[in-house]
From TrEMBL:
<feature type="domain" description="Thiolase C-terminal">
    <location>
        <begin position="257"/>
        <end position="378"/>
    </location>
</feature>
<feature type="domain" description="Thiolase N-terminal">
    <location>
        <begin position="5"/>
        <end position="249"/>
    </location>
</feature>
<feature type="active site" description="Proton acceptor">
    <location>
        <position position="365"/>
    </location>
</feature>
<feature type="active site" description="Acyl-thioester intermediate">
    <location>
        <position position="91"/>
    </location>
</feature>
<dbReference type="InterPro" id="IPR020617">
    <property type="entry name" value="Thiolase_C"/>
</dbReference>
<dbReference type="Pfam" id="PF02803">
    <property type="entry name" value="Thiolase_C"/>
</dbReference>
<protein>
    <submittedName>
        <fullName>Acetyl-CoA acyltransferase</fullName>
    </submittedName>
</protein>
<dbReference type="InterPro" id="IPR020613">
    <property type="entry name" value="Thiolase_CS"/>
</dbReference>
<keyword id="KW-0808">Transferase</keyword>
<dbReference type="InterPro" id="IPR020616">
    <property type="entry name" value="Thiolase_N"/>
</dbReference>
<dbReference type="GO" id="GO:0016747">
    <property type="term" value="F:acyltransferase activity, transferring groups other than amino-acyl groups"/>
</dbReference>
<dbReference type="InterPro" id="IPR016039">
    <property type="entry name" value="Thiolase-like"/>
</dbReference>
<comment type="similarity">
    <text>Belongs to the thiolase-like superfamily. Thiolase family.</text>
</comment>
<dbReference type="Pfam" id="PF00108">
    <property type="entry name" value="Thiolase_N"/>
</dbReference>
<dbReference type="InterPro" id="IPR002155">
    <property type="entry name" value="Thiolase"/>
</dbReference>
<keyword id="KW-0012">Acyltransferase</keyword>
<feature type="active site" description="Proton acceptor">
    <location>
        <position position="335"/>
    </location>
</feature>
Length: 379
């Protein structure tokens, strides 16, 4: 099996996912097309030689309903013979797109593939595809009579790992502080005149966050001491990101200089009621596949869907906290669902390059109690 090399990775700025947000006037197809165009231009590849375009997207309805990767590829003016597919593994959709590209290259099915994601949460509201329908059905509800929304699951995670409101707010303030001082210039490509992330609030403090009301409660768990707020949760966001992956042979033939290689990837399921704990077993699984220990990892990205998620993960692994989400996370940068996996990977690669780190690990919790995990090596 051949290695999958990451040639380049780019992302859009992050815009607030509501009316009036910096990217809310941009159709999601055009948002992704801008990122794809920048990726092709930066790498200098002939777009006609791309085997497939794999795009993560959660809200596959309204303006994101017509295979958005296909429409974005055409909107960028690229050849019609290049296909695209849409992938939905909830928050891990574009991390799964990267994994599928990796597996396709390893199997010899692809030589050159684009993997990425897009989500315009201002134009395609979260949950709008579901409406009032019950996606679980009676058999699942009979097996899990206390299924709850993710926000309540975050409360359950905080309860199990004995995380206080102060712990959550301190981590949220850290996310904004680290993101505000990080240099994202090498990974962001301008979209419609927007050049910087709109979501970061440098002035965020524990004191300010302490004044926010809790956001989630459930009749299923009335005993919970509520701690999760909008301030220590990820932001609704518009964004897109994309990576170019190549086989070793194709990269050499084209004279491409890869930035990283994928060492191992894994996916697993976990308790669908706790829902957000999957990154813990997924991390153990991917480290075993990579033949590495947590001490070998120079930087870890655990998606900040809610502050309890990375804090619970950290409690389970002997890692220097400074190596966890060292450039902030979704609490500050936002969480454009289907694009977040590719955004985290882009940020992780840039961080390893800027700090001289060798190995990076990325993992994301996903609705339904699932998680992806990927280990990369900087080249």
């Amino acid at each position: 099996m051949g290695a999958a090399l990451i040639v380049d990775a780019v992302r859009s700025p992050m815009g607030r996912g509501k009316a009036g947000g910096a990217l809310s006037g941009t159709h999601p197809v055009d948002l992704l097309a801008g990122v794809l165009a920048a990726l092709v231009e930066r790498t200098g590849i002939d777009p006609a030689t791309v085997d497939d375009v794999l795009v993560g997207c959660v809200g596959q309805n309204l303006e994101q309903s017509a295979t958005p990767g296909r429409q974005a590829w055409l909107a960028a003016g690229y050849p019609e013979h290049v296909p695209s597919v849409t992938i939905e593994r909830k928050c891990g959709s574009s991390q799964q797109a990267v994994d599928f590209a990796h597996w396709g290259i390893a199997a010899g099915a692809y030589d050159l593939a684009v993997a990425g994601g897009v989500e315009s949460m201002s134009r395609v509201p979260m949950g709008s595809a579901r409406g009032d329908a019950d996606p679980f059905g009676p058999a699942v509800r009979a097996r899990y009579p206390r299924l709850v929304p993710q926000g309540v699951s975050a409360e359950l995670v905080a309860e199990r790992w004995k995380l206080s409101r102060g712990d959550l707010d301190a981590f949220a303030a850290r996310s904004h502080r680290l993101a505000a001082r990080a240099s994202f210039a090498g990974e962001i490509v301008p979209i419609g005149g927007v050049t910087v992330d709109e979501t970061i609030r440098p002035g965020t403090s524990v004191e300010v966050l302490a004044g926010l009301r809790t956001s989630f409660k459930s009749a299923a768990f009335p005993e919970l001491d509520l701690k999760v707020t909008a301030g220590n949760s990820s932001q609704l966001t518009d964004g897109a990101a994309a990576l170019l992956l190549a086989s070793e042979e194709r990269a050499a033939a084209l004279g491409l200089r890869p930035r990283a290689r994928i060492v191992a990837s894994a996916v697993c399921g976990d308790d669908p009621v706790m829902m957000l704990t999957g990154p813990i077993p997924a991390t153990r699984k991917v480290l075993a596949k990579a033949g590495l220990s947590i001490g070998d990892i120079d930087a870890v990205e655990v998606n900040e869907a809610f502050a309890p998620v990375p804090l619970a993960w950290l409690a389970e692994f002997d890692l220097d906290p400074e190596r966890l989400n060292p450039r902030g996370g979704a609490i500050a940068l936002g969480h454009p669902l289907g694009a977040s996996g590719a955004r985290l990977m882009t940020t992780l690669i840039n961080h390893l390059e800027q700090t001289g780190g060798r190995y990076g690990l990325q993992t994301m919790c996903e609705a339904g109690g699932m998680a992806n995990a990927t280990v990369i090596e900087r080249l």
